[in-house]
Amino acid sequence: MTTPKPALLIVDDVAANRAVLARRFGRRGFEIAEADCGKRALELIDQRSFDLVLLDVMMPDVDGLEVLRRVRQQHSPVSLPVIMVTGRSEGTDIAEALAAGANDYVTKPVDFVVALARVNSQIGRKRAEEATHKANESLREMNQNLERRVAERTADLVATNEHLKKEIAERERSQAEIRYLAHHDALTGLGNRILLNQQLNQSLIRVGQSDETLAVLFIDLDSFKITNDTLGHSVGDALLKTIALRLEENLREGDKIARLGGDEFAIVQIGEDQPKGAAALADRLIEVIRKPCIVDGHQLVVGASIGIAVASSDKLDPDQLLKSADLAMYRAKAEGRGTYRFFEAEMDARAQARRTMESDLRTAQIESAFELYYQPIVDLRRGRVSSLEALLRWRHPHRGFVPPSEFIPLAEEIGVIIPLGEWVLQQACAEAMHWPQEINVAVNVSPVQFKYGGLLRAVTDALRDSGLPARRLELEITESILLERTETNLAILNQLRALGVRISMDDFGTGYSSLSYLRTFRFDKIKIDQSFIRDLQTKRDSLPIIRAIADLGNSFGMTTIAEGVETEEQLSFLLLEGCLEVQGYLFSPPRPACEILAVIARVEQASDAAAAERGSIGKDEPLVQLAPL
After folding, report:
1. What does the DSSP 8-state code read for residue 79?
2. Is the whole model's pTM more than 0.70, yes or no?
3. 550-572 confidence digits (pLDDT tens)
4. Which residues contact 584 (CB under 8 A, 6 or more apart)?
5. One-character DSSP codes across 491-522
6. 325 and which of 244, 309, 559, 601 could share a cystine (Cβ 3.0–4.6 Å)?
7. Strands, DSSP E only, in 445-501?
8. In terms of DSSP H, where are the helices of 168-223?
9. DSSP state at residue 470
């Protein structure tokens, strides 16, 4: 499909200026229209559509700013981008144009390369918005069709259920209901844990007396908690019922299924060739569970992690089989979710290791066992370190350094993160006092610290004890903090902001990334998750996501930081998309506090060397290349 030529309106009272721009843009494939005054420009805009207006500020009849104001009464910055052309570079003039709704500006004499880049950027955004709108309309139509089909299916099920109820004898009804409730889950109608244990015991007796085989599949839904927390328990309950029905429909007549509680299910499979039969069933169940569910107008998608334990001659204990399948399920979750794993003996050892780590965490002396490392965040406009992120390290007496990915989730689960988080705040603020005053310190805050209720006091104490100005402390939070206890957590964030502390949204783009969060609370910074940076050159969808987040940050007046930058190629991509603060191994790995001043100096030296290679850099010109350290 051929893309139509972009229509460009050039407005300038000087014919020579129009002619030069018209000729050069025409050569680049633009369809050009010209207006020699503001009045003529407004007439042309009323008569036909344009992709962009290149508008001179200084004109004799109606100046460019007045034309811009009138255009914005009819057209939004997205539907008709306007780039102002000004001969004056004073900040007030440019600010007035941007405040009136200009998308961008260029200065005279016009640098055509810069003008072409900015025109192409604005037209690209306009067309992307149009494509998004069209896709949303298509998705809305699909949702309506799916809702109709669910409604029809629900009506059929209700009618069938009513028919079956009429056939039940009234005399047996009460006793049957009591027996049913004692052995079944009230929400889904599946068997409960009691019934499953009875069925599993009976099946194991049968297996022990024959050559049949048996497997237990332990199923846990992925991402169900997010749905329950954000949309409410009624939607979560309806989703569980839908999933339960899908599971039942994909079992053989002799298989047994139960809901164990929450979002956990268990299946007993008998008579298949094992482990082949259990693997085939697990594959089938994962596929049917991940299909979208329409509940109360919401299109919901969840996954499943499945653990499998196969009975053997020395493994016929029902409790042990369920425990083994449960451990295997946790292995599936740990290795990426949306998959299944068979129980292996080493999983018992892992469970024991986890209990040992929990004990070690509870007894560890924070001041001697833990240490803070710091990784610089570099402002590419200045080629200087703007802040350093504090990263916790645990030096275990026997294992050496334990990865944060292992001990932080456990510390959150058992509550140790509360005293540990307070120590991190105290230590980070104290160590930041030894750095240059223009460099901030960033500290990650756990959702558990918000639930605990002592975060505000901990921050206030750390600032008071260290003497660090509040403006130099940045707290990084994740979206999960705004998913629960929203009003309470927002109140805490606003109290922290009132102290002067800066707040950053960490790992943006990996969760719900809802715009409502950015409207509800004005973050100072948003950090693009390193997974998008890592996949920048291998996955085509990473760059549009980065571009969208950068544009989003700019539109809300928030600094956008890209983390996980490891190569010059990644850095170049990010610069083109407007990410002017970056963090990653390209500049420095996390280093202990004693090396931070040297790290800062190396970044500055590398910046100055890069600047010297290509000549002097303007105060506001981004640093295009920075030699890796």
Report:
1. T
2. no
3. 888 788 888 889 899 998 888 88
4. 375, 530, 533, 562, 563, 564, 565, 566, 570
5. HHHHHHHHHT-EEEEEEETSS---HHHHHHS-
6. 309
7. 473-477
8. 170-183, 193-208
9. G
